[in-house]
Amino acid sequence: MTTLNSPKKTLLFLCTGNSARSQMAEVLLRSKAEKLFDVYSAGTHPEGVDERTLTALTKYGLPTTNLTSKSIDTFSGVSFDYVITLCDNASNECRSHPGAKKQLAWDFPDPKKMTDLDAFAVTLHYLDKRLALFLALEVKPNLNESQFTKDTVTEALATTDEEHSVNIDPVSFYKCLTDDIRLKTLMLTNYHGELCVCELMAALSEESQPKVSRNLAVLKKAQLLTGRKHGQWIFYRINPALPLWVKNVIAQTTENNVSLIQASNTQLSVMCNRPNKVSFCD
């Protein structure tokens, strides 16, 4: 495995087409923390940079020079400190990139398929907020959050009328947030992409597996989480079919209350015998 010759942390954003989300994330993280990260992006099936991506970046004063769509094969055999997938397709095609020291799975709707007129600006906004969360959790001491979101992109925030297959009762949803284990489970899963019971036990310093499992069952019954079984493990993630308003509540709760899961995230990072997802590549 080749390691990039850099004194900084290396990070790869991975998406399907490397045309929108991963390009935006690459530019945004460079603008936020260029002194700390060497940032790259690639696609499992690259299709060229979408012109609307360039338009959105330019609109908010972000550089677009030298942005190109690249195949993940370009980085074959290269080791990264972080690999972050930005869509289900990329995550499912390789649940654990072999060159990743740490991998996160963030599922953002494809702006090319959204009906909102400002879909690319909206996606830029959400990526900006998630990257602020990433820096708050992963970088010590914390960086000052970029003013980019507050000053420019917030006004572009709008809901989309994507179709979803799950109907969520607001009362039931908010009841699920009243328990400390369930709330932190949703926040941690929102950040990491997917976690199993043993990972949650380590993160939450909870010795009782039945207690964690019971709360997971509540979240799954409420259709907030879905699970996939692989061998002896069941990995849980935020249900991708949730309405956008529910995803927004979970995401914004996480992004604006980092201190609530800071210790849990640290405990998870030093967990011994953590399930190895390398064997889970499809």
List keywords for this structure.
11 helices; 16% strand; alpha/beta; five-stranded parallel beta sheet; single chain; globular; 282 residues; three-stranded antiparallel beta sheet
How would you portray this structure in words?
The protein is an alpha/beta fold and 282 residues long. The chain contains 11 helices and 8 strands. The chain has helices at residues 21-33, 51-59, 88-93, 119-138, 148-153, 170-176, 180-192, 197-204, 209-221, 244-255, 259-269, and strands spanning 2-3, 9-15, 37-43, 78-85, 100-105, 195-196, 225-230, 233-238. The strands form 2 sheets. Strands 1, 2, 3, 4 and 5 form a 5-stranded parallel β-sheet that branches. α1 (21-33) links the parallel β2 and β3 (37-43). The radius of gyration is 18 Å and the shape is globular. The relative contact order is 0.13. The model is unreliable at 145-164 (pLDDT under 50).
